[in-house]
Design a protein that fits this description.
Layout (H helix, E strand, L loop, with lengths): L8 E5 L4 H12 L3 E6 L2 H10 L4 E4 L5 H7 L2 H4 L4 E4 L14 H29 L3 E6 L12 H21 L4 E8 L5 H6 L3 H8 L10 H12 L10 E4 L7
Helix pairs in contact: 1-9, 5-6
Length: 246
């Protein structure tokens, strides 16, 4: 199934590494003009060095005013596709959660996602152009995970926002979907889940008995962004090896 993004402009947040970086690369290879956003300028520079046609914007999305300044339509031009991939995990028992932890996590996982979506949707509406948004959520939005209370809450908000946004802007031809991965074997994922003592209890809850690979999330995101999914909106797609089916 060939997917082509020629003539489209795609904005990808959290594009410095892992899933977000690979999404940006594959969109570029598919013919899209890509705008990659992330906090780490050095990693963005590395991406730019490998793919000079990709536009990179160093930005902390928790900064509302800076986001308004750098991601407005006059600065970046028309955007057709959005991937809200930027995310943060603050883990630990609820009784040890600090106010600053909650603020940091919700600012990125929820507030920034809403803000960037607002900017892109306003851009699409002004141009009377259809578009597609994909939010990178988590299996944690639909299942309780130990020591993930605030993270679960933030991803639950992402799923709810996805449904409401799809309802609100479907009549304008703007589709909004979410992907909900399990543990994915990014470099950070391999580091955090390489210990069998940590990994095995989770693997036993996954019918396929393995964690996901980056390309398995990227492929789903590209599908949702493409015209191949033209009748799909308001959906949360588990990429979890069956974890949520148990």
């Amino acid at each position: 199934m060939e997917i082509n993004f020629k003539g489209k402009c795609a904005l990808v947040t959290g594009a410095t590494q892992g899933i977000g970086r690979e999404i940006a690369i594959q969109l570029h290879k598919g013919g899209a003009k890509v705008i990659a956003v992330g906090r780490n300028k050095n990693l963005l520079d590395t991406l730019k060095g490998e793919f000079p046609q990709i536009t990179t914007i160093p930005l902390d999305l928790a900064n509302w005013s800076e986001t308004e300044k750098l991601l407005n339509k006059d600065k970046i031009g028309p955007v057709d596709l959005l991937v809200n991939n930027a995310g943060l995990a603050v883990l630990g028992p609820l009784t040890e959660v600090q106010e600053s932890d909650v603020d940091r996590l919700l600012n990125i996982n929820v507030k920034a996602l809403i803000h960037v979506t607002k900017l892109v949707v306003a851009n699409l509406l002004a141009r009377k152009t259809p578009g597609a948004v994909v939010n990178v959520s988590s299996q944690a939005s639909q299942a309780g995970l130990l020591n993930h209370t605030v993270y679960c809450a933030s991803k639950g908000a992402v799923d709810a926002f996805t449904r409401a946004c799809a309802l609100e802007y479907g009549p304008s031809g703007i589709r909004v979907n979410a992907v909900n991965p399990t543990v994915i074997m990014t470099d950070m994922g391999r580091l955090g889940w390489s210990d069998p003592g940590v990994a095995n209890p989770m693997l036993q809850k996954i019918p396929l008995r393995r964690f996901g690979e980056v390309n398995e999330v990227v492929d789903a995101v590209l599908y949702f962004l493409s015209d191949k999914s033209s009748m799909i909106t308001g959906t949360t797609l588990a990429i979890d090896g069956g974890f949520l089916a148990c």
